[in-house]
Write a structure and sequence with these properties.
single chain, about 300 residues, mainly alpha, about 75% helix, about 0% strand, globular
Length: about 300
């Protein structure tokens, strides 16, 4: 591959993980207004999994999986996609998408604290500064008098933090888990398993199942974009970048996604964007930067919704 073509592919791939992943908060927010959250997530992950598995077959990657790998895939699928994403999408019914994206950006804070509690990991000075900044940013974010919060909003925010905790613990678990060598195959199985669990949850919660043709055009397009671009394109671009550029550069998506989501929520859905939110975003993302600037924490920022 010539240098010019490779440079173009790298630029397009960065655009994908920056803008597409940042836009998934908005897309989920639009879709969940009329599609039940667990039903929405089950369809999204099942369709994305089928497409990913087809890509793996085209690349002649083996789909074989051991029992232990399957068991670990069930655990990871639940932590990441069922609870971490499915419940998060449910909470989006009551919380602005940009606000939710900033909450999601606190994941590195939870990871470092869990590593300390569970593994006795020594927290470096730079990481401590990051945690403090993150806590200040979170406080500024949720303590705004101008936010129109009700009882459901507080429940949604609380659940979002538990979702981030689930993602954070999952990121620690997956670092030691026995999984298929191919990242495509591992993710495909996790998505298929999660979609099965989510459809059971949807049925258990008596969610109304409607055919895609009965959805509004906005919901239909949001689902298509979530499946194809959020689930396949950005994921493929992410894996390409991991092979072509440094992990540190790929990890910068952790700083850009919330900013994209905050802007899109304000521009498309007319969500409130206050000065305090902007200040909180800056402090929060600065804290994430301090934590992720240590190489050992960067792999956890690879995990995306």
């Amino acid at each position: 591959m010539d240098t010019t073509r490779k440079s173009i592919l790298i630029i397009l791939s960065f655009f994908s993980i920056y803008v597409i992943w940042g836009s998934t908060y908005l897309l989920n927010k639009i879709a969940v207004q009329e599609i039940p959250p667990f039903y929405l997530a089950s369809i999204r992950f099942f369709c994305s999994a089928i497409l990913i598995m087809c890509i793996a077959l085209l690349l002649k990657v083996s789909l074989k999986i051991t029992f232990k790998q399957f068991k670990n895939s069930v655990i990871i699928g639940f932590l990441f996609l069922v609870y971490g994403n499915g419940v998060f999408v449910w909470a989006l019914k009551y919380v602005d998408s940009g606000f939710a994206a900033l909450i999601a950006a606190t994941q590195p804070l939870f990871v470092i604290l869990l590593m300390r509690v569970l593994n006795g990991f020594e927290i470096k000075t730079k990481a401590i500064i990051g945690v403090v900044l993150g806590l200040i940013g979170m406080y500024l974010l949720v303590s705004q008098d101008s936010l129109q919060l009700n009882e459901d909003s507080y429940i949604g925010i609380t659940l979002m933090f538990t979702c981030i905790l689930s993602w954070s613990y999952g990121s620690i678990f997956v670092s030691k888990a026995d999984l298929p060598k191919s990242y495509l195959v591992a993710t495909g199985y996790q998505m298929i398993i999660a979609s099965m669990i989510l459809i059971v949850l949807s049925y258990s919660f008596n969610e109304t199942w409607t055919a895609p043709l009965s959805w509004s055009s906005n919901a239909q397009w949001s689902m298509v974009l979530l499946i194809i671009f959020g689930g396949v394109v950005a994921f493929t671009a992410f894996n390409y970048l991991l092979k072509e550029v440094s992990t540190e550069k790929v990890a910068t998506s952790a700083y850009v996604n919330p900013v994209i989501a905050l802007f899109l929520g304000w521009y498309v859905l007319e969500e409130q964007l206050t000065t305090q939110s902007l200040v909180a975003a800056f402090i929060l993302l600065l804290g994430v930067y301090f934590i992720n600037s240590k190489k050992k924490f960067i792999p956890f920022s690879r995990l995306r919704k």
